TrEMBL record:
This is DUF2851 family protein. Pfam families: DUF2851 (PF11013). It comes from the Bacteria. It comes from Aequorivita aquimaris.
Length: 435
């Protein structure tokens, strides 16, 4: 038994509240369980109870055993002077405030249904499982699942917002520069994301704006900063870009000492860093007002049109410098477009709107619902338990669910875990999601 369970039971009143008394026989009526406090101090603030007809307002403290009050030295802490009720699982000691006055005690163990206890113990059993609720996951009703995934997705966006704001601060609040950095990172995908991000951060965006007027200048800038123009080769295009980069490096005093070298190993040729940087250069050459179009874009088709770019003609016949290939336009694939929208466009649109005091949650949810679900190990495992991921919004929410709730055993803060422990009424689902 853990205190988190007692917090859950008290917060949602998952016990028989009729005909209850304190340990001293005082008739207890719970008017308001209070607001759950996640920080230091009593567990619930601003509760209201009635003892033998007398109304009390104050705080509630919860422990597994009454004696924990003294084990935690609450009797010497003024923050606990306003506790009006001590809720415990087992009562093994009388409790007094700092001034010597007794604190009423309510023994929760006597009133929690046995089925609720059994479901809790089953959920947190030591049996090795992928997630605690995997044996019951399939039984979750569609309403609970859909609404909780929606809430989780917005929670994930809020977490990404914090990361973006930190990065925005480094750019001196330059939103176009932020978009450039995050897009460049995601063009590198998982293998070269860190490398491409370091490339983007090594270039002041004012330099990018100047070079974007000439496609070869921008391509040379990116390739050169990535270290892809070092050494010698007889390839004419390599020599052309290297010469251009040498001029740009001197002119803008560029430094790539802190850039992470991109990788080719185990990548399919279409994902080679040379091809991806060429596509990225073409994007900024063809879309000089990219940030404004990202912010104003309302539908998926508009973003697909933005990202519908290819590398320059040289890359039609090459995947790397000096190495020929069958002629083929190296166009940004739909799967990459989807990832760019999921991981860059939507988070930046969301973050920008929040900073302007606008709520575009409905617009974002509608947009992400039209993108196909991602395929990865976590999503596949959830789908094997219950076919649940039907869009990118769902798959993103499931990633957040696994890492932030399942892996951290936060089942009692999860609408799914709570519904398994006890039958969850719809108002209760909403309260869990709001908190």
């Amino acid at each position: 038994m853990k205190e988190d369970f007692l917090h859950y039971v008290w917060k949602f009143q998952k016990f028989d509240v009729g005909g209850i008394c304190t340990s001293n026989g005082e008739i207890l009526h719970i008017k308001n369980p209070g607001s759950h406090n996640q920080n230091s101090g009593p567990d619930f603030f601003n509760a209201q109870i009635e003892l033998d007809g007398q109304l009390w307002a104050g705080n509630v403290e919860i422990h597994l055993k009454s004696s924990d009050w003294y084990a935690h030295a609450h009797e010497t802490d003024v923050a606990y002077d306003n506790v009006i009720l001590h809720v415990v699982w087992e009562h093994d000691a009388e409790i007094y405030r700092k001034d010597g006055s007794a604190i009423p005690t309510f023994i929760l163990k006597k009133h929690v249904p046995k089925t609720t206890q059994e479901r809790y113990q089953k959920l947190f059993s030591k049996e090795k499982k992928w997630i605690n609720c995997e044996n019951d996951f399939a039984s979750i009703d569609e309403f609970t699942a859909e609404n909780w995934l929606e809430r989780l997705y917005l929670e994930r966006l809020q977490r990404k917002e914090k990361i973006l704001l930190k990065e925005l601060k480094e750019t001196q609040n330059h939103w176009e520069s932020l978009l450039f950095r995050m897009l460049c990172k995601n063009f590198g995908l998982k293998v070269n994301g860190d490398s491409f991000f370091s490339v983007a951060k090594s270039i002041d965006f004012s330099v990018v704006k100047k070079c974007s007027q000439e496609r070869q200048d921008l391509e040379a800038l990116l390739m050169g900063q990535a270290g892809l123009l070092e050494g010698d080769t007889e390839d004419w295009y390599f020599k052309t870009l290297k010469t251009r980069y040498g001029y740009l490096k001197h002119k803008f005093q560029l430094d790539n000492a802190n850039v992470i070298a991109p990788k080719f190993f185990r990548l399919r040729p279409p994902n080679f860093p040379t091809v991806r940087l060429a596509q990225f250069a073409m994007l900024y050459f063809e879309q000089p007002s990219l940030f404004s179009k990202v912010i104003s874009g309302k539908n998926l088709e508009a973003f697909y049109e933005l990202f519908n770019v290819t590398g320059s003609e040289y890359w039609d016949k090459h995947y790397n410098f000096g190495i020929g290939s069958l002629q083929r336009k190296k166009r940004v694939s739909k799967s990459l477009m989807d990832l760019l929208v999921i991981n860059t466009i939507i988070p930046i649109k969301f973050c920008y709107a929040v900073q302007q005091g606008r709520d575009i949650s409905d617009e974002i949810l509608e947009l992400v619902a039209k993108i196909s679900s991602e395929e990865n190990a976590i999503v596949k495992k959830f789908n094997s338990l219950k076919k649940i991921s039907k869009s990118a919004g769902h798959s993103q929410a499931l990633l957040h669910l696994k890492t932030e709730y399942c892996d951290k055993n936060r089942c009692l803060q999860c609408a799914i875990g709570s519904s398994i422990i006890g039958t969850v009424a719809q108002p209760e689902v909403r309260r869990i999601m709001e908190n």
